[in-house]
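For the sake of clarity, the format in which proteins appear in this thesis is described at this point. The record quoted next illustrates the convention:

___
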Amino acid sequence: MVNVDKRKAVSDKSDKSKKNTKRPKKVSEYGKQLLEKQKVKGIYGMREKQFRKFFKEAVRQEGSPGDNLLSLLERRLDNVLYRLKLATTRTQSRQVIVHGHVLVNGRKVYSPSYLVSIGEEISLKPQVLEKKKFLEQVIDKRLNIGVKVPEWLELSKKDRKGCILRTPVRSDVQTPIEEHLIVELYSK
């Protein structure tokens, strides 16, 4: 009876080693497209319905749908706040916006998906600028790091506000994104 148990234990070990030596499955073209879309959604912190809405808007615009999509995503208020170094992450910038701490041209905006336009000024409420702990731990810490603000934005460190100079183009997006895969996925 003991011999049977030993053989079973040995065969279990060999089965486990066979499972570990299998090569990973090759990712299909659809799988690559889906992974790229999920990656971009994760970067910008979006859900599927909103992402699809942005894609439809990108297709309606003149030019390449992939470049238009990235331009729209970059122009979202939560991303602009992050790019202006007024928040440490996009998630934090979303929270700051939803809590009503951000002004666009002097008006409160509560929607992180608000699309900024050329010439609009993004700033923090005066009450937020009075909170020393927040300024030290979040804003000033990031402003003093050597992170550059993209060329399509202008930052006034002293006033802690920014301005949109132009719409972002594909070359402004430094993240490695293969937008053509997303376009192919939604074109099916």
